[in-house]
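Per your request, structure below.
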C-alpha cells in the first residue's frame, strides 16, 4: 500500500472513530479464530468471474412468499426467498454436510445457497477443504447429509425429495442409517462417495436463510412421502408424549412425568427406539403430540391437523415448533416448567388444555 493511500485511510478512519474501531476489533477477532469471511460467494456472482465453476442451468423451483402469523405475543412473520433448481459445473462437494465449494482456479469459495445456516457459523465451525486434487466424477445430484434430526426432517429431507434429477444422488460413504433408508425407500439411483468429491456437473436446489422456519411446500413434500408409506388411511387420533428420559437433555425426573401421562391413557414414546419409517407411520396417527423442546417434536409434521403442546424450561425460547404448528393453522400451546418441576400441576394444566381441543 502506498504511503499516501495509508495516510488518507487513517485520516478517514479518524473522522468515524466508533465505526472504525468496531471494524478493527471485529477483523482482529475473526483473524484470531481463523475465519475468513471473504471465502464465500453467492450464486449471483459465480458467473461474473472467470472461475472454473459455472452455472449452466437455473429454473425457479418455488416462488418467494411472506407468511404472517398472529400469536399471543404479537406478529410472527418470515419472508421466504425464491428457490432455484441449479445445474453447475466443476464444484467440490462436501457430501457429509451437502456443502458446495466454488472452484476459482486457485482456491475454493463456500457457496452461501448450499446451507440455511448463517455463513459465519459455517466458516467458524467447519474445516475448510484444502485446494488440491480430489476424486472426480462426471455428474451427480446432492443427496442427504448427516445432520441433526430436526434439521434433517424440516430442511434436508424435503430438499432431497423436491430435487428431480437423472444424475445419481451422492451418498456419503459414512452416511447415517436414516439416509440409506430413505434412498432405498424412494428407489433413487445413488453413488457412494468420499466426504469430498469433485463433480463436473452437479444438480441441486438452492437454500434460503430459513433456519427454524419450515415452508408449507416442504411440509407438503414430507406429507406425500409419508403417504407413500401407507399413512393415508383413516387416522386413529392418538395422543402421544415424546419422552427424552433416555437422553442427556431430558427433563428433571422425567420418568415421574411419564407415569402421570400413562395414568391418563396417553401413549409414552421413546422415538429413538423405533425405526424411522415406523416413527413416521406411528405419528401420522397423532391428534396431539406433547413433549419437551427437542427434535422429536418435528414428528407432528406427519399428521394433518395435529396439535402440539411444547414443554419448555427457563432457557431462551426457540420458536421453531411454534412456527411449524401455526403455519399449518394447528393448535399450539407452550407450558413452562421450573428447575424444580411440579409435574402433577403441569399435567393438570395440560389435561385441561386437552379438553378444549
Amino acid at each position: 500500500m502506498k504511503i499516501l493511500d495509508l495516510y488518507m485511510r487513517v485520516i478517514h478512519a479518524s473522522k468515524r472513530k466508533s465505526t472504525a474501531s468496531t471494524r478493527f476489533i471485529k477483523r482482529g477477532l475473526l483473524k484470531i479464530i481463523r475465519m475468513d469471511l471473504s471465502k464465500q460467494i453467492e450464486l449471483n456472482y459465480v458467473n461474473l468471474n472467470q472461475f472454473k465453476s459455472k452455472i449452466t442451468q437455473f429454473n425457479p423451483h418455488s416462488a418467494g412468499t411472506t407468511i404472517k402469523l398472529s400469536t399471543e405475543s404479537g406478529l410472527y412473520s418470515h419472508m421466504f426467498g425464491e428457490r432455484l433448481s441449479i445445474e453447475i459445473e466443476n464444484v467440490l462437494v462436501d457430501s457429509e454436510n451437502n456443502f458446495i465449494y466454488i472452484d476459482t482456479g486457485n482456491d475454493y469459495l463456500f457457496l452461501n445457497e448450499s446451507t440455511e445456516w448463517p455463513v459465519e457459523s459455517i466458516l467458524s465451525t467447519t474445516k475448510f477443504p484444502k485446494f488440491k486434487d480430489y476424486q472426480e466424477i462426471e455428474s451427480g445430484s446432492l443427496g442427504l447429509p448427516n445432520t441433526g434430526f430436526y434439521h434433517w426432517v424440516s430442511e434436508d429431507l424435503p430438499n432431497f425429495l423436491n430435487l428431480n434429477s437423472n444424475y445419481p444422488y451422492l451418498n456419503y460413504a459414512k452416511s447415517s442409517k436414516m439416509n440409506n433408508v430413505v434412498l432405498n425407500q424412494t428407489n433413487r439411483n445413488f453413488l457412494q462417495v468420499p466426504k469430498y468429491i469433485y463433480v463436473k456437473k452437479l444438480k441441486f436446489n438452492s437454500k434460503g436463510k430459513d433456519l427454524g422456519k419450515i415452508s408449507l411446500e416442504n411440509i407438503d413434500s414430507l406429507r406425500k412421502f409419508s403417504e407413500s408409506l401407507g399413512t393415508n388411511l383413516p387416522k386413529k387420533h392418538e395422543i402421544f408424549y415424546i419422552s427424552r428420559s433416555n437422553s442427556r437433555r431430558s427433563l428433571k425426573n422425567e420418568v415421574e412425568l411419564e407415569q402421570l401421562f400413562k395414568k391418563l391413557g396417553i401413549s409414552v414414546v421413546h422415538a429413538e427406539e423405533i425405526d424411522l419409517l415406523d416413527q413416521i407411520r406411528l405419528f401420522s396417527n397423532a391428534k396431539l403430540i406433547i413433549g419437551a423442546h427437542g427434535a422429536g417434536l418435528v414428528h407432528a409434521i406427519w399428521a394433518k391437523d395435529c396439535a402440539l403442546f411444547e414443554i419448555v424450561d427457563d432457557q431462551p425460547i426457540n420458536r421453531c415448533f411454534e412456527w411449524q404448528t401455526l403455519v399449518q393453522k394447528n393448535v399450539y400451546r407452550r407450558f413452562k416448567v421450573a428447575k424444580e418441576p411440579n409435574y402433577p400441576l403441569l399435567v393438570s394444566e395440560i389435561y385441561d388444555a386437552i379438553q378444549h381441543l
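The longest strand covers residues 83-94.

Regards,
D.
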